[in-house]
Prior knowledge:
Layout: H1 29-38, E1 47-50, E2 55-66, E3 72-79, E4 84-87, H2 89-95, H3 100-124, E5 160-174, E6 179-191, E7 197-205, H4 208-211, E8 220-229, E9 250-260
Antiparallel strand pairs: 1-2, 2-3, 3-4, 5-6, 5-8, 6-7, 8-9
Amino acid sequence: MAYTLPHVEDSAASTYLPPKGDYEIFVDEAHYEEKIREWGLSVKKEYWYKERTHQRTVKIKGYEVYGKTQEHYTIVLEFEDGNLTCIHPAYLKEMQSPNFTKAAISDSTIAPSKKRETASKVKAEKPTTPESMPTVKKEQPEKKTKKEKAPKIELPMDKVHFTASVKQFAQTWNHFNEDNDEVVVLENVVVQQEDPIEIGLAWCSHSKTLKKLELEPGNILEFDAKIVKKKLAKGKDVEEEFIIEDPVHYKINNPSKLKKG
């Protein structure tokens, strides 16, 4: 018989990890859906937050971006009582599974016994001495091929104005939902400011907002957005027209005020 965690609304029942300072909020419904799918979650208004003895309903309030390349995300959740906490997208996805409760209980009961068993095995085994070890001929290490590095560009942290043109459409592998996502590859990307910054190639998700523009290769675009250093990963088993040959090292996030020339 399946065991279901009780649903509680008691704020004292949970431990909170609130966001540190300001965090990103969703621009609109299309932006919300785009990020939810990017994280491998089903698009809905409420999700389950499960702990060892209970579960609670939460809403996704926004997200934090971190890391040197600003390509990692922490989701900001809001509980029914208004408290906020942060969680990794993959862990929230696991919580939506009916098997999450069973796995959590199983891990808590089995882990200590495995630890004791491992410790006893270590004591029983005779330590290996240098004399007892077989002689192995050392092989010369293979020369590592140099990875292609992105040009050093000082990226703006805030939202800025861009001009660019559509190079092609491509597909990239999304390990959260284990499927390919369609993206737009842009070329001649320039940050338009007092001292313009030439980015070159960049990519962004082919969101509902962009699809409304019915883009084609060669279209000139103007928009406001944030840019981060994040290489475009290749898709798996994609058609030739969706393969991008040139390395793309930068990603455009949350484009708005789009104009097609």
